[in-house]
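Researcher: Sequence recovery benchmark, item below. Answer with residues only.
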């Protein structure tokens, strides 16, 4: 039968389905809020690896689409429609998965940037607090004179 898909089609379809399922499972895991930059970096690396893996399988997805198109020209309408429906579902899941991956990566990168700013701001604040602490212990603060005290603190 010219209307039946080649054996390679079935193998490729099975591989793609497994890959999509695994990826969907990884993405559906609850996202725990993490305040450790290294863990966030690791998670981002995992997401980027997943993206790369999917991109590597794009050729297999293209093969499936092309094969279905070829078969649909030769196959009876009901057979053709069955394979078209199957590939449309796969393409839909693939597209959704790819979009979710991009979104997850962007959100994680934004959170990492915010965390980095927060850590830098915290470091600056701690440094200033340490300087003020030294100032208050070493120099005689202008007690009772708020303007003079304010000027002394500005010097820190």
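Model:
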């Amino acid at each position: 039968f010219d209307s039946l898909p080649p054996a390679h089609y079935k193998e490729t379809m099975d591989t793609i389905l497994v890959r999509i399922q695994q990826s969907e499972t990884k993405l559906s895991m609850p996202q725990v809020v993490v305040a450790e930059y290294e863990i966030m970096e690791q998670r981002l690396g995992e997401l980027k690896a997943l993206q790369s893996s999917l991109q590597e399988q794009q050729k297999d997805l293209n093969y499936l689409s092309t094969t279905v198109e070829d078969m649909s020209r030769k196959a009876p309408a009901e057979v053709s429609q069955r394979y078209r429906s199957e590939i449309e579902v796969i393409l839909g899941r693939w597209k959704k998965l790819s979009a979710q991956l991009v979104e997850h990566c962007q959100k994680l990168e934004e959170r990492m940037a915010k965390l980095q700013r927060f850590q830098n701001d915290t470091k600056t604040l701690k440094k200033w607090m340490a300087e003020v602490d030294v100032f208050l212990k070493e120099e005689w603060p202008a007690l009772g004179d708020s303007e003079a005290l304010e000027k002394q603190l500005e010097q820190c």
